[in-house]
Fold this sequence. Notes:
By secondary structure, the protein is mostly helical. Helices cover 69% and strands 0% of the residues. The chain has helices at residues 23-29, 31-55, 63-86, 98-104, 111-139, 143-168, 173-193.
Amino acid sequence: MPVWAAELAKKSVDLIVATDPGWVAQILDHFDAFLQDHANCERKASALAMSMVVKYPDRTQIVPRLIALAREELEHFEQVYRIMESRGLPLLKDAPDPYVNQLLQHCRHGRDDRFLDRLLISSLVECRGAERFKLIFGALEEPELKGFYRDLAGSEAKHGHQFAEMALEYFDQGTVYGRLAELAEAESNIVAGLEWRPSLH
């Protein structure tokens, strides 16, 4: 039985490489900078979902889900911004995300291929976010922040599932999970080569 067959219940797949547990020390030591990066990540996630609505308005089966996902990510942005306000932190101008940018280099050309790859890359990004938020809430001591990141971990895992599920609306299982396996391998190589920064990725 293919590895992906055991994953059908949750639609997304397990990440190939786990984040080094030592990564979270970088976050805790520079938590204000991490919050500013986190806010940008949530804002960009909302914008990405809406950009897919604009680029693929004919994919009517998933447009409502993309809109709901964009709204949820925008709510997360607002929540992070409120935490930043309480700490006197400004929003930062957007900066390139080496993790996401390297993943997007694996997008193929062609309307259908690119559509599939964007959904599956989004699934992997959300799954990586869930994994790292879990590390963060496990390391935090402040109850309110701990609870916030615990909830975010669950939300990101759900989003990872949803993006893969959306792909399955338009492509067969073999196509989706075959390509997802390829992109997951690329994602693992990218993560292994990233410099640790006070950022989600």
